[in-house]
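User: I'm curious whether this sequence folds into something compact or stays loose and floppy. Could you predict its structure so I can see for myself?
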Amino acid sequence: MRLLVGLDDREGGKDALELARVLSGREDASALVVTVLHTGPLPREYALLPEEECREAETLFEEAREKLAGVDVETRAYGGGSPAGILTTLAEREDFDAIVVGSPHRGAFGRVLVGSVATALLNGAPTDVAVAPKGYAAPAHEPLRTIAVGYDGTPEAKVGLRRAEALAKRSNAQIRVLTVVEPAAAVPVMVPGAYKPAYPPKPDKVMIEALESVDGSRGYGPLARVLLGSVSRPLVQKAPCPVLVAARA
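Assistant: Here's the prediction. I'll summarize afterward.
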């Protein structure tokens, strides 16, 4: 697994490092840790900074190497440009399994909050994006134990399940598949054109399909049903745990 980690000197940077450590699993992991330095009042095109110009980033990079001990870590400091733009460009030019970022320093402790960097990445990154909740860096976390997957049988859901399967194999984690069920007493929609959630017509069939598609599914733990609305954006905004949004296949 190769991760692209966005790092800054705020708490969100520490949270991203901790999530990268957890996602790296037990072996064969590498990470490119990237920070963007302020280079003056005028906007400029981004550029990789030579060693003599990025000494202020060395403290951050030392922290990254210490946190990601056992992971093959490469570090780069850039000047100019935007963090989201630089991370997206790097992901387009190089091969990464996921981009890892933290939540902004404002917002509820222990919750994922999508700031400008994560929002830009979620709207255009060419690879998976993992967002750590605020405060995730303390205390240190154990390897992944349970991975929840929202699944409704769509091609996007199948991609997400494949990502979860790969992570579960690296960490020996359980997969918990979540789908949607029609409410027992649905409230009629009275406003013309109002949004009505789409529910899988046969939740049992959807769950069985998911279970049968996972290699070694009996070892991945229980299946569970929950009632979900529109999933991705509200989930990323409110989740009390790290969220990985899979890139479209």
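Summary: Residues 222-230 have pLDDT under 50 and may be disordered. The two ends are 18 Å apart (CA to CA).
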